[in-house]
Amino acid sequence: MKDFDHLMSVWQAQPKQDQLSVDDVLRQVKKGIRNITSQLYWGIVFMSGILALTFLILFFFVFQSWLTYVGISIMLLTMLFYAVMIIRNYRILNKRDATLNPTEYLQDLKEYQKNRAKTTGWFYYLFVLLISVGLSLYFVEVLRNSSILYKTLVYGLTFVWIMFLTFYYKQRIFKNEEEKLNLIIEKLERLQGQFE
Q: Rounded CA gap, 144 and 155, in Å?
């Protein structure tokens, strides 16, 4: 019986989980989602500008080699596909208000998290690879009459930039966003658990 009394006293001494304020949680969720959607919005704006520039180069510049057109087309299609994915993610986050139905909103966030995991996984590396191939094909003609030093400098800086985006920037940006999203989902799940 002493063991049972000891177990009861330990169990009762455990700190109770704080009850979350619905208004505070929803305000924090809206703020976190606003930050993520703002990043996505500016990503869409930036990608639209780059797509327009690439489109202009493809259709209004005359190149001698068909490889240049293939390289630009690869970059254009890759960026277009990435832009569609960003717009899709943006729409998932903006299609519902968290205050109207937090349960459905939580499901939307989990769907977004799953889609974003795909993006940060295999697709990001495929994106970088295709952009690299497209740039390499584009540079073959553009740098044809340049000196070896200039070609080496351009290819070297491009390689360093792509490695920076792949191994440093990707980890930093996507990890930061993932942490924010996990925190938002955790708060909504705790809030949902309070009402069950």
A: 12
Q: What is the mean pLDDT of each run of 10 residues along the chain (196 residues)?
A: 59 56 73 84 92 90 89 93 87 71 76 77 84 89 89 91 84 79 79 65
Distance between start and end Cα atoms, the chain: 34
Distances (CA, A) of 162 to 5, 44, 105, 129: 63, 20, 36, 9
Quickly list DSSP for 24-56: HHHHHHHHHHHHHHHHHHHHHHHHHHHHHHHHH
Please give the structure tokens belonging to residue 140.
Answer: 């073959």
How far apart CA 129 and CA 37 sit, in angstroms, is: 26
Q: CA 185, 188, 193 angle in degrees (round to 5)?
A: 125
